[in-house]
Amino acid sequence: MSREAVIVDAVRTPVGKRGGQLRDWHPVDLLAHTIAYLVDRTGIDAARLADVIVGCALQRGEQSGNVARNAVLGAGLPVSLPGTTLDRQCGSGQQAVHFAAQAIKSGEYDFAIGAGVESMTRVDLGPLFVPGGGRGDWYGTRALARFDGDLPAQGPSVELVAKKWGFTRQQLDAYSVQSHRRAAAASDAGHFASALVPLDGTDKNGNTVALSRDEGIRFDIDPERVAGLQPVFSPDGLITAGNASQMSDGAAALLLAERGAAEAAGLRPRARIVSMAVAADDPVLQFTAILPASQRALEQAGLTIGDIDLVEVNEAFSPVPLLWREEFGYPEEQLNVNGGSIAIGHPLGSTGGRLMTQLVNELERRQARYGLLTICEGGGMANASIIERLD
After folding, report:
1. Short-list 22, 210, 239, CA closest to 123
2. pTM score
3. For 81-111, b where at least 16 C-beta lie within 10 A, e where not — what string?
4. What is the mean pLDDT of residues 74-89?
5. CA distances to 145, 290, 322 from 327, in Å
6. What is the dihedral sign for C-alpha 72, 384, 362, 112?
7. Are 239 and 317 in contact (CB under 8 A)?
């Protein structure tokens, strides 16, 4: 008898700006708070959890030393519960969910948590986040030699992508404005509220404040101001701070289970993991693997793109969802319907969990059936997931 991996529940913190309202949260504590809230909210017997799998992209400083295990201890969960931390770059949180679901489908686990965390405030971001800051020292001589020394940071790569697909600055800026407007409308309508972890932050004056919405959304976005921003990576480039994702802080966590085990425990599954895929493509262009990853997920599910009701493509930069939409011919009104990382922010390791949480909630709100999530990742990789809402 085949085993089904299901999402029992999914939560996330409000996303904070870099140096913003989550600046005083140690990332381990932020993740511990999120996991503890998920466990309390679901009522899962923590003794039944097999593992906590966490995505975190910048594993240095406060995020080194296996944040997953330290967060388990910080959450007050049994000392017998293990945790492991992985790095699939921007898709780390999504990969954590995949690994948990795969272990459940294999029969090794009945219950596990897939989560993600990133504090881009409290750790050294390294040269990749500094325009013109040079190449990191992690490639090794052989990979560099294979590509004649041309393994660029993501900024120069996305300029190449924008040029290859023929996007204009006006298209990229218009997409960015739409992301903010959609996120603002969703936030105002309370579409995010049920998934948010209650927590306090610190305002600009140092006061403790309760956080109830994402800090990066521009509720009064000015298209003229966006159009006036200067290119970041080259004087004649198309990418600006306005049409790129924001550097942010945040955490997310999902409780996954084998469907029969969840139901026997009195838990109501909210969604089923239908298919999971990972792919890689040109490491110079970097952002194109979302295409084969999505196609692979569709093929594994036995579905076509016309069967998919909602899609989330991570907004690392505006060209990414635009190229995906163009290649799949997908309706604009079903893609990133509540905005994305350009507006909300992109705490690298947690974004996959946030987007999965958002997709579950939006499928329920619309009473839709299938949703697809794909995230581009550094080095030219991507993950893709298809989930099905359960009644």
Report:
1. 22
2. 0.96
3. bebebbbbbbbbbbbbbbbbbbbbbeeebbb
4. 98
5. 32, 10, 9
6. negative
7. yes
Sign of CA dihedral 332, 338, 344, 345: negative
Q: Angle at which helices 169-188 and 319-328 pack, to 10 degrees?
A: 100
Q: Alpha-carbon Rg of the chain, whole angstroms?
A: 20
* Spatial contact of 116 and 355, defined as CB atoms under 8 Å apart: no
pLDDT value of position 128: 72
Residue 162 token pair: 């924008």
**3-state DSSP assignment of residue 218:** coil
Give every CB contact of residue 70 below 8 A, 6+ residues apart in sequence. Answer: 28, 32, 83
- Report how far apart, in Å, the C-alpha atoms of 9 and of each of 3, 35, 120, 296, 353 are: 18, 11, 26, 26, 11
Determine the Cα–Cα distance for residues 233 and 81; give it in Å rounded to an integer.
45
Residues 6+ apart with CB under 8 A from 271: 6, 7, 360, 363, 387, 388, 389, 390
For CA atoms 386, 198, 185, 205, the dihedral sign is negative
Active site residues: 90, 346, 376
21-53 tens-digit pLDDT: 999 999 999 999 999 999 999 999 999 999 999
3-state secondary structure of 132: coil
Residue holding tokens 């967060």? 71
Tell me if residue 116 falls in helix, strand or coil.
strand
Cα separation values, 115 from 301, 310, 312, 340, Å: 24, 22, 18, 19
User: H helices within the chain, ranges in order?
Assistant: 27-42, 67-74, 92-106, 140-146, 154-165, 169-188, 223-227, 259-264, 290-301, 319-328, 341-344, 351-366
With a cut of 90, say whether residue 126 has pLDDT above it. Answer: no
Q: What is the dihedral of CA 228, 229, 231, 237, to 10 degrees?
A: -30
